[in-house]
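Q: Protein A?
A:
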Amino acid sequence: MSSTPASSPALPQRRRFLKLGLGATVLLAVAGAGTALLSKPGLVEGRLSAPARQLMRAITLAVCGDLLPPEGPAREARLTSHLEQVDRQIAGFPPALRAELGQLLTLLGTAPGRIGLMGLRSPWAEASPAEVQARLQSMGRSGLGLRQQVFHALRDLNCLVFFNDPASWPLVGYPGPRTS
């Protein structure tokens, strides 16, 4: 049996490819972090910033859209209430968790972060619920743990707030806790 010698042309090519891949990853991480730092923060004084509100509104429509009232004033009022409750929920998080969530919202609030992490090309305010839902599902099935964590964080926060709100219970047919 013959073995490939260490000086074979394939090894230097593989090494160059690995170095190029590592260099590109570092460059993207630095560029993404720099962009995120220059953009508007995801949380301001523990509350959703305007860009983060657009992001969370889009996520809410994708995650809970079928459970919300039909389009119109009732739906808008429900979404406004939901986002206010998201703010209250975030305010109750430990500081470290708030900081991590703020960083995530800041990153996703940038075009490179939104495209790179979610694969969503449309700005949050313009993305359809179906488009956001498809990108979320893709993240949930991703082989990358980071994308799965982001999916769970965004989905779970919305579900926690939605299903914890007694105003949502009639929308899903839940009569409320038993009183007996």
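Q: Protein B?
A:
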Amino acid sequence: MRNIMWTVIDSPIGPLRLVEQGGAVTAIEFSPFRDQDGRPRGPRADDDPVLMETARQLAEYFARQRTEFDLPLSPAGSAWQRDVWDQLLMIGYGETASYGQIAIRLGKTNAASRAVGHANGSNPIPIVIPCHRVIGANGTLTGYAGGIDRKQTLLELEQDALF
């Protein structure tokens, strides 16, 4: 098992901890960071090439100069979660989809919306895997692991960049 390495960057939505293992991004964490959650953490590595590239692409995103990420990703999750996260990657910059729309794209009925929501909330690589682009069927900003304020900020950043 390769070392887990991490760094912390500043962003318009607060400090973000970027986590890398085996040459791929495995997590982006919002502050306050949960260090007592039992997950192993290796050394801080501000000069790790994957973390440096992730930080660069996020800075471009927040500066409205990047609409797509090109990073090696390795989110840990069940097959269902990974299927949902793959669908999130297909929601374009500045666009949104409802939980029900994602369920239908996965060949399920609208009744699977709750399961989509649960997988969405378990996304370990927010922003890059754009779980903030998933909204309620009526257009409301429903739950977000990083908090509704962060979700709104991210959606507004993308909307403002389009106009």
